[in-house]
């Protein structure tokens, strides 16, 4: 065998080995990317399902239920080719298709939640933050158009205000039932302040009028009760400060 042929065989062998290595790297990279996409789609499906099931009944509308159903369905259809062996995916997609086909007649079974504690309010706030995140992501993935995304983000901001109003109203009414006009007045006052600091307080005029009437009643009732000590700590003075602070997630709007 001539030296030239031997050299040619060696070079060919090296080329084949390099080609195999490159192909293996490409295959491995593709597999890793598929695994990443599969994990992300699965996680977002789970989060949409959790939002659909966990949102308080007083905030869950047919339109919101339909939105979450369609978002989860779109994610599932993208996931199906990447996760064909998943035994629960096809039945879930079938249920989502059936629910989405009902349109605005979609069934809403979420139970109302009476928001009376700060922990409840924070838990609902986290749901709203996740809903915001899902809408922004869906818009970036062209699953939801920009006009609709902006409309839903505005709606989430309104729901956040209503959450504060409901919380302070409930705390105030509970305080009145317990005979604490002072605590009730503070709660109603916090609710009034929260509405007035909004960029569009006129949108909440009905809620503001109700809080002002409750505040006036509690204020008059307080005059007949012993005044609290000036240095008496107030839970309401500290309550929900984290909820009323400027939230980072609100800055991630769609423009």
From TrEMBL:
Keywords assigned: Membrane, Transmembrane, Transmembrane helix
Listed Basic and acidic residues bias regions:
241-255
Chain ranges passing through the membrane: 6-27
Q: Where is this region: Disordered?
A: 220-255
Q: What is this protein called?
A: DNA repair protein
Recite the lineage of the species.
Bacteria, Pseudomonadati, Pseudomonadota, Gammaproteobacteria, Pseudomonadales
């Amino acid at each position: 065998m001539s030296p030239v042929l031997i050299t040619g065989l060696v070079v060919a062998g090296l080329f084949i080995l390099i080609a195999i290595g490159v192909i293996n790297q490409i295959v491995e990279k593709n597999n890793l990317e598929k695994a990443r996409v599969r994990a992300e789609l699965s996680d977002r499906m789970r989060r949409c399902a959790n939002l659909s099931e966990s949102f308080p009944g007083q905030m869950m509308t047919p339109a919101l239920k339909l939105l979450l159903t369609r978002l989860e369905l779109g994610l599932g259809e993208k996931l199906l080719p990447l996760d064909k062996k998943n035994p629960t995916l096809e039945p879930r997609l079938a249920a989502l298709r059936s629910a989405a086909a009902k349109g605005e007649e979609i069934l809403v079974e979420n139970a109302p939640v009476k928001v009376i504690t700060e922990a409840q309010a924070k838990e609902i706030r986290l749901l709203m933050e996740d809903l915001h995140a899902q809408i922004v992501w869906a818009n970036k993935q062209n699953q939801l158009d920009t006009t609709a995304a902006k409309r839903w983000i505005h709606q989430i901001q309104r729901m956040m205000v209503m959450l504060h109003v409901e919380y302070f109203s409930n705390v105030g009414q509970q305080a009145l039932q317990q005979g604490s006009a002072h605590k009730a007045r503070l709660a109603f006052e916090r609710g009034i302040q929260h509405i007035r600091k909004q960029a569009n307080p006129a949108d909440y005029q009905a809620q503001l009028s109700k809080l002002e009437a409750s505040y006036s009643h509690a204020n008059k009732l307080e005059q007949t009760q012993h005044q609290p000590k000036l240095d008496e700590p107030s839970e309401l003075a500290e309550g929900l400060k984290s909820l009323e602070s400027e939230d980072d997630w609100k800055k991630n709007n769609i423009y």
